[in-house]
Automatic annotation (TrEMBL):
Keywords: FAD, Flavoprotein, Oxidoreductase. Pfam families: FAD-oxidase_C, FAD_binding_4. PANTHER family: D-LACTATE DEHYDROGENASE (PTHR11748), GLYCOLATE OXIDASE SUBUNIT GLCE (PTHR11748:SF103). The keyword Ribonucleoprotein does not apply. InterPro entries: FAD-bd_oxidored_4_C, FAD-bd_PCMH, FAD-bd_PCMH-like_sf, FAD-bd_PCMH_sub2, FAD-linked_Oxase-like_C, Oxid_FAD_bind_N, Vanillyl_alc_oxidase_C-sub2. This is Glycolate oxidase subunit GlcD. It comes from Geodia barretti (Barrett's horny sponge).
Amino acid sequence: MTSSLAYQLSELLGPEAVLPTEGYLVDGVVPQAVVRPPDREGVAQVLRWAAKDGVSLFLRGGGVLAGLGNVPASVDVVLDLTCLNRVVDYQPADLTITAEAGITLDNLRRELAQGEKFVPLEAPLSHRASVGGILATGFSGPMRHSYGLPRDWLIGISVIGGDGVETKAGGRVVKNVTGYDLNKLYSGSLGTLGVIVEASFKIAPLPDTLAGLVAFFSSMEVAVAAARSLVSQVYAPQGIQVASREVAGRLGLDMPTGSEAMVVAFLSGRPRAVARRAEESTRLLADSGGIAVDDLDETASAGLLGGLTDLAWKDTDCPTLALRVSLPPSNVGRLLESIKEREKGDLAGLAIVADPGFGMVQLLQWPDSPAGGPEPEAITALIDSVRRSSRELDGAVVVEVCPQDVKSGVDVWAGNVEANELEIMRRIKRNLDPAGILNPGRFIGRL
């Protein structure tokens, strides 16, 4: 079967488009073939062929977030999209850019910087992460409080559906009212509705400078309260994160004696404005119980921002468990209180990164954590405990990282949508991917 699929793809696109399967594992499963089409027509050809023969496709860009989602129902062919890496149109004066989905985030940033512009997309391992992967996963980073989600900057999209037909939504201008707003439908759908091949974004002037502050506190509760106070100010930073002691250690930061948590704030803009806002923020954090407040230069700030973004997705020092909880910002503190109450039980040993401005909490555990607990039963019980605590606070949990033997027995999206919502999603899936070949089983409800 393996040689058969590889042979058929070789006949379809040429032998140079068929790659070895090494390095393309999907949740421990070796695909039967890997194909890298040279262009969008090649992608469409693969989709038409796959739909005709019922061959399942696993979509892959840079592979950084390839582990996100349920164990797929089947993995026949990995569709590598990294050849779609061109900037199609860049209009600095109109504040728009259009690029193919396989371009890496770093390359997109470099292209934009030539016109002194940027688009506030964030992703771990940005030298590998593709724009299409960022959109498909809906990934956001520490600056999400100010800049929002990737879909908030998306103004147009081109997608090849499960039938091999390319469709477009939106456009290449900021003020467009072309058709239905399908940008948000495809964003975060994990490649189950179509293959994103091109995206247009509104962009913004590149900030002149980036600065950071790190304040240390006696407890997570005090740190969250200080952060909540800071984000409510007119001089609030673009991004703010609250992290526990273990996270600080993973980031290479030494915490002062008596501190158990830290607040990290990122500010960007014109140098004088950033300096003034940093001064005000430092004063507020100190008055809110900060044991020490350190200023970071631009290089250190960028390094820490990257470290927080990469935390759960690095190639080395990877956590065995990473859970993302989305909930109302006002409930972040209450969730952390719930975790503290149970810290000697199911939730012991969890490292924490919280975004109290946006409403997100990341819970992590490394193999060498005090309660690393590699046993599948213990990890499954921990996931269930986090879900119970989160549901009580109108939160939703996604299991981003967990051991393979745990993942095969849990739904990483469980409980995040109602039954009627799931039925609507199933109907959309059937309409856009009638053969069910795109990332089958990967998304909510094992769509």
